[in-house]
Amino acid sequence: MEKVFRAVKVTDRVYWVGVVDWALRNFHGYTTHEGSTYNAYLILADKVTLIDTVKAPFKDEMMARVASVIDPRKIDYVVSNHSEMDHSGSLPWMVEQVRPEKVFASVMGTKTLKELFHWDVEVVPVKTGDTLDLGDMKLSFIETRMLHWPDSMFSYLEEEGVLFSQDAFAMHLASSEIFADELDRDLLEREAATYYANILLPYSPLILKLLKQVNEMGLKPKVVATDHGPIWRRGEDIAWILGLYEKWALQKPTGKAVVVYDTMWGSTDLMAKTLADGLASGGALVKLMPLGGSHRSDVAAEILDAGALLVGSPTLNNNVFPSVADILTYLKGLRPQNLIGVAFGSYGWSGESVKQVREVLDA
Predict the structure, then answer these.
(1) pTM exceeds 0.85, yes or no
(2) Where are the domains of the chain?
């Protein structure tokens, strides 16, 4: 199999040994129109080290990529930067096959891995400031709690200048191209924004602190190797994605308005189009999103750079229309900030929906 699935050289001593999931279309409620990748990395140091693994069904493909470079049994260390199952699903199997000397994770990661897999494998906890001696190279660690799990952390390979950033600076994008500079900038921005809006938006204040911390630590990565999507290897591209993260995390309002709604017999649809027309005539950039044809994750992506959110719903059985309730629940979890909120709707009997929408927007 290693003749089919080959590792990709990232730097002189680092290889990509991940997988491409072309078929993925749903990631815990987030529609992934372009599929995704599960990235894992092999460091050829004196102590051969694997950074993260992949989703369990792809374990053989990952192992084949490792085997195209080195006998997998020569892996000494495994580092789990993030224990979500798309990055740790193959870990128990990998440990059983390879028998590494040690497995490392953050303090919370050690707890999470034991709870996920009910195993008695010793996982060595590391924290911000700790280093791991690989013989001729060194890994240092930065805990990034709640970006986007409590266990999340970065690993930095100093000699090669590679920052293994797990889910930060990532995107769900399946492609035969492994590096960001091989792809179109517009595509990268769209998919990175969609990922940020649906995964990282609630943790924006923490992201601002992290960006400041990385700057204060003087880290100048030559490569940012994420757990999803392409690898950032050019300085201008790394600066670009860091700048986008700062912009998105600040959530500064713009002149864009997103109108989200559903309708039963056309009244709320007419209201939505009238509001959109009025906003546009006043100079606003308007995105009209009828929920019959707009997925919640696409709505979240549009809101990321908006200044106003208008939500419309007819009343059904004294309640908000189901599709509108769905998007409100989803956005409540994402917690977008600095938006002007507007509730509107129509009714024939009691008309509770507008009040209920307003209560959610005000929360």
Answers:
(1) yes
(2) 8-250, 256-362
Report pLDDT digits (tens) over 169-206: 999 999 999 999 999 999 999 999 999 999 999 999 99
Active site residue 84: yes
Read off the pLDDT of residues 64-94 as tens digits, 9 standing for 90 and up. 999 999 999 999 999 999 999 999 999 999 9
CA distance 235 to 31: 30
Q: Which of 21, 34, 61, 86 is catalytic?
A: 86
Q: How far apart are the first and last CA of the chain?
A: 54
Does the annotation count 33 as an active-site position? no
Q: Is 148 a catalytic residue?
A: yes
Task: Report the C-alpha gap between 49 and 60 in whole angstroms.
Answer: 18
Residue 82 is a catalytic residue = yes
3-state helix, strand, coil in the chain (%, to 5): 35, 25, 40
pLDDT band at 281 (very low <50, low <70, confident <90, very high): very high
The superfamily (CATH) of domain 8-250 is Ribonuclease Z/Hydroxyacylglutathione hydrolase-like (3.60.15.10)
Q: What is the DSSP string of 1-18?
A: -TTTS--EESSSSEEE--
CATH class of domain segment(s) 256-362: alpha beta
| Residues forming beta bridges with residue 8, ordered by sequence position | 16
